[in-house]
Amino acid sequence: MNSALINFSYLVASILFILGIKGLTNPRTAARGNLIGASGMLLAVITTLADRQVFGAGLEGLTVILVGVLIGASLGTTLALKIQMTAMPQMVALLNGFGGGASTLVAGAALFDASQPTAQMTIAAVMSGMIGGVTFFGSLIAFDKLQELILPGRPIHFPGQQIINLLLAVAAVGVGAMIVMDPTATHLYWVLVIIASVSGVLLTIPIGGADMPVAIALLNSYSGLAAASTGFVLENNVLIITGSLVGASGLILTRIMCKAMNRSLGNVLTGAINPNVAGEFSADEVYAGRVKSAGAEEVAMLFDAARRVVIVPGYGLAVSQAQHAVRDLATLLESKNTEVDFAIHPVAGRMPGHMNVLLAEADVNYDKLREMDDINPTFPQTDVALVIGANDVVNPVAQTDPSSPIAGMPILEVNNARTVVVIKRSLSPGFAGIPNPLFAADNTLMLFSDGKKAILDLIAAIKDM
Q1: Disulfide: which of 73, 290, 420, 444 matches 440 by Cβ 3.0-4.6 Å?
Q2: What DSSP character marks residue 170?
Q3: Torsion over CA of 53, 58, 60 and 65, rounded to 10 degrees?
């Protein structure tokens, strides 16, 4: 293929990537957006193989590529079918890590293979190795902390942590500069990767479960930047464009998440998220016998008299796979002329858009999913706010205790509703690890149960009235 046709194909693939991302912004068009993006990737892969003359280079090289494609496709299909929505953040973290690791290896291989690497190739390879190393091992730590296989989900701190991070950054820049000045010293590339990998570990372990959505978004941006750098190493236009799209969108999402959680982007970049847990009250002090529990029949009576209900989904909804039952409850209430809306916090669950995807899966009308800034002023006119498995995103401590780990974080102000019904299996804390005074408020009733079972019991009780 001639260069003009190659570049035209890359341009078409890039346009498909952009249209795919645009489609993902709305649940109605998300499936189509996924297919468009996948089509762009298929075109980019075929064009790259043609550009590198792989199809005419003999069966051996093509066989190796096809084996890799089959292995990757098998793993991807298996993960897509087996992974539950509750584990999707862990999968995203792994995918970020694989992207960063692949960029590091490809850039390193190109640098080693080049007889006379240009300044552009050397600088881009250094950037890819540095960012890719941080991304790969940072993502593995994020996966482990979410899954709690080895490391706990809570933040991990030790004396001199930030100083060590700074020294590692200086060392990485120093080694990178040595490689640029002497491209033949290729062995230093792996020294750079090792330093970056240690940095990835140390930058991620201070991040607790409550802040992990921010870390995942940032690692996603890093994986894109590593890919773009590798694109400069290979002089591959579509990889540069794709990596830039992922890097920019990940950084924008990180900024949105920081705003939603009242976190500083600088703290995220240095791994200093949520180090202060002082000022917390114990659960006994917060609850102290003031929690009022209720059964499904009592809550059904509240719904029978309610004219407006707001449903607040949280991680507990995802764990219990209650989205379809919640849709049935909303449909039943609307058949009784009750207005029903869904209040969506940007970081409800374990990743951005977690609740939107779950409810879209259950065919909940997207127009009923109200964002935090839009729904908060309406809570004083809400008869019943039904909270399903949410904790930190409805915790009023964020607005009342400046020393709290979630101080200043915007929350869904369900406490302003006339009655709040919270469905939880227990009074266990959320990812921030602090008790929630909402559970002991005068206008709150606790319905202790699994999320799906509680909703099904409520539906049965409402129908029996």
Answers
A1: 290
A2: H
A3: 30
3-state secondary structure of 444: strand
Tokens of 226: 């590593």
- Residues known to be catalytic: 392
Q: pLDDT tens digits for 127-171?
A: 999 999 999 999 999 998 888 888 887 778 889 888 999 999 999
| 278 band by pLDDT with thresholds 50, 70 and 90 | very low
Q: Which CATH number fits domain 283-464: 3.40.50.1220, 3.30.420.10, 2.170.130.20, 3.30.750.24?
A: 3.40.50.1220
Q: What percent of the residues of the chain are helix, what percent strand, and what percent coil, each to the nearest 5?
A: 65, 5, 25
Give the long-range contacts of residues 185-188, CB within 8 A, separation 24 or more. Answer: 186/111, 186/112
Which tokens hold the place of 352? 């951005």
The number of residues making up the chain comes to 465
CA-only gyration radius of the chain, Å:
25
Domain boundaries, the chain: 3-270, 283-464
Tell me how far apart the alpha carbons of residues 368 and 390 are, in angstroms, rounded to a whole number: 18
The arithmetic mean of pLDDT across residues 337-346, rounded, is 93
411-420 burial, b if ≥16 CB within 10 A, otherwise e?
A: bbbbbbbebb
* Separation of alpha carbons 155 and 267, rounded Å: 13
pTM: 0.80
Query: CB of 465 within 8 A of CB of 313?
Result: no
Q: What is the phi/psi pair of residue 211, to 5°?
A: -105, 0
Cα separation, 412 vs 381, in Å, equals 14
| Residue ranges in 206-322 assigned as alpha helix (H) | 212-234, 237-261, 265-270, 283-287, 296-305, 315-320
Sheet holding 369-371, edge to edge: 369-371, 339-344, 308-313, 384-388, 419-424, 444-448
Q: How far apart are CA 316 and CA 436, in angstroms?
A: 15
CA distance 144 to 148: 5
Q: What pLDDT, on a 0 to 100 scale, did the predictor assign at position 157?
A: 83
Which are the contacts of 283, defined by CB distance < 8 A and separation ≥ 6?
427, 429, 435
Q: Which two tokens stand for residue 269?
A: 């970049």
| DSSP codes, 95-151 | HHHHHHHHHHHHHHHHHHH-SS--HHHHHHHHHHHHHHHHHHHHHHHHHHHHHTSSS
Q: How many CB atoms lie within 10 A of CB 375?
A: 22
